[in-house]
Every structure is written in C-alpha cells, then in structure tokens.
Automatic annotation (TrEMBL):
Record's protein name: ABC transporter ATP-binding protein
Region (Disordered): 277-308
UniProt keyword annotations, A-Z: ATP-binding, Nucleotide-binding, Transport
GO terms for biological process, alphabetical: transmembrane transport
ABC transporter domain: residues covered: 6-249
Keyword Acetylation: no
Source organism of the structure: Streptomyces sparsogenes DSM 40356
Gene3D superfamilies hit by this protein: P-loop containing nucleotide triphosphate hydrolases
Length: 308
C-alpha cells in the first residue's frame, strides 16, 4: 500500500479560554491521496478552519498526528518544519483581507519565491508572470494592487501566491464563498484544472454542497469537532445518515436557497437539523473569541498562531 500524501490521525485542538480550554477539534482523522480531493463540511463552529490552520501549522495541535508523506508535522519544531511548509499551502476565505494592499500582484506572488530561495529578481518576476498567466489573469495584472481587482481576481492572485512554492496540497478555507456564483464557478474550474495539470491535491472547506459535489471526490462531515460522516462524495450525498448532511442536501437541491453564499434558509435548515446537538453548542465564553493572530496571514507564513 502506498503512503497517502496526507494522513490525519486523532487530531485534537484545544484553545485556551478563561478558566480552561475549549476542545474545538476532537479526534479527527482522514486521508488525502496524491492529486486527491477532499471536502470538509459542517455547521458553523464545528472546527473546519481550526483543522485547516493546523494542516499548515498556523496552529500547533494539542494531540494527534498530521502525516505529510509519512512525516508527522503536527509537532515538528519550526526549524525542521520550514522545508516542508512549501508543500502544503492555504488559500484563504477573504480575497479582500488576505492580500497585502501595498504589494502589486507580481510582488505578492514573487514573495514566496524569495522565501523559497529564488535569489534572482528577474527569475522571480518571470515565475510570477507565469503563475499569473496560469490562474487566468492578464499580464497587465502584474503591476496592479489589490484595490484594483475584483474579488474573483484577488482570489486568483491568492491561488497564484499559494502555487508559487509548488505545493502538493492546497487547503482552501471557504475560498470561493465570498464570490458571486459565476466567479465561484470559474475559480472552482481553475482548481480542477490545476489538479489535473499539476497533480495538485486539495482540501476544500465549504458550506456549499453544490461546491462539494462539483469539486471533491471525498467528503468529511463534521459536527461539534468530530467527524460524523465520511466517504465518497457521491455515496454520502446519495444516502446521508446525518441530519446535518440531510438538511444541507435538501437546501442544496432547492434552487431558491443556493446562491453560492451561506444563505439564511440553509443556515436555518441546518440549525433546525442540529437542534439538540449539545456537543456542537459553543460555550458562551468561547463564542466570539477572536481568531488567533495570523489566521489571515498569507500562505506560507512562517509563524504559527499558537507558538510551537
Ligand atoms: N482562538 C480561539 N479561542 C477560543 N476558541 C476558538 C478560537 N478560534 C476558534 N474557536 C472556537 O473553536 C470552534 C471551532 O472554530 P472554527 O473556526 O474552526 O469553526 P468553523 O467550523 O471553521 O466555523 P465557520 O464555518 O463559522 O468558519 C468554535 O466554537 C470557535 O468559537
């Protein structure tokens, strides 16, 4: 049996909160094959982003293993982690906030190349131009700053930046949810193309089953920090056993509720389905706790949010 690109085993993440800790992720496991695709879905607050941030080690997990090609990166000290960071990159939800407003697209994409040791400025510029082209932006985009782009274009720049270090796995945290449906479709197509062209694997975190169905061959459904349903996307969506998955599927099948965002109808359907799911409830002192500093750092940020 070949080693999967990524194997997550018994992942536990606890946040410090006044008077103790809050367990946001509680014994989660899944695998992603080389060139594979996995969606992580689940109601708000179930721990999806916490997993994503752990995978790129913006957070240090409390327990469990994150095996990248067999090497456990969950607790690896920064010095040993650094050479592996380039292999897993993250694309963030907010195409408005995740780019440095002062940098041109070329500078944004060239920066990870510089960090990866590409010393020649001309070479960095050449590679940045190639990447900008690969994500479907015109060469004129290279010298423009984020304010001059649309949300979809910014997200493409975010993807180009993530690709700059030639990763094997992209972690996309609601990467298309801020975008209009048609732009969302274009970005999803881009991810699919990259998967084919580069053998790039990705993990997509989404509330949108339409997105999940289109883009991922496998799915993990979470509730209250745990995996409650997992398997091939088609099989899980064809016969969901979890109330959350059933509600999400019902909402996804109703064209009036899906507009590529987190529509109120979907949220309320999910809330109804999840009523009584005590373990999913957020304790009052945790609700509204700010995200860890650095959670909107550019991909490849060398500093974990929770110091390793
Ligand atoms: N820094 C923090 N300190 C304390 N609790 C936190 C912190 N960050 C997140 N949490 C809590 O951990 C749980 C999981 O949060 P996370 O952001 O991973 O959920 P999510 O599934 O990504 O939610 P959403 O879909 O709304 O983005 C939530 O209950 C959240 O309130």
């Amino acid at each position: 049996m070949t080693t999967p690109l990524l194997a997550v085993e018994g992942l536990v993440v606890e946040y410090p909160v006044p008077g103790g800790t809050f367990r946001a992720v509680d014994g989660v496991g899944f695998t992603v094959e080389r060139g594979g695709s996995l969606a992580i879905v689940g109601e708000s607050g179930c721990g999806k982003s916490t997993i994503a941030r752990s995978l790129v080690r913006l957070l240090r997990p409390t327990a469990g293993r994150i095996l990248l090609d067999g090497t456990d990166i969950a607790t690896l000290p920064e010095r040993r982690l650094r050479p592996l960071r380039r292999r897993v990159q993250m694309v963030f939800q907010d195409p408005y906030g995740s780019l440095d407003p002062h940098l041109t697209a070329e500078e944004t994409v060239a920066e990870p190349l510089r960090l990866a040791g590409v010393t020649s400025k001309a070479e960095r510029a050449r590679r940045a131009a190639e990447l900008i082209d690969q994500v479907g932006l015109p060469a004129s985009a290279l010298h423009r700053r984020p304010a001059e782009f649309s949300g979809g274009q910014r997200q493409r720049i975010g993807i180009a930046r993530a690709l700059a270090s030639d990763p094997e796995l992209l972690v996309c945290d609601e990467a298309t949810s801020a975008l209009d449906v048609s732009v969302q479709a274009q970005v999803l197509q881009l991810l699919r193309d990259l998967r084919t062209e580069r053998q790039l694997a990705y993990i997509v975190i989404s509330h949108n089953l339409g997105v999940v169905r289109e883009i991922s061959s496998d799915v993990v459904v979470m509730r209250g920090g745990r995996v409650v349903e997992a398997g091939a996307t088609q099989a899980v969506l064809a016969a969901p056993t979890e109330p959350y998955t059933r509600a999400l599927r019902r909402a996804a099948l109703d064209p009036t509720t899906m507009r590529g965002r987190k529509p109120r109808a979907v949220v309320s359907a999910i809330a109804t389905a999840s009523a009584g799911a005590a373990e999913a409830a957020v304790s009052p002192e945790v609700a509204g706790t700010p995200e860890p500093a650095g959670s909107s750092d550019p991909a490849g940020s060398p500093e974990p949010a929770t110091p390793s």
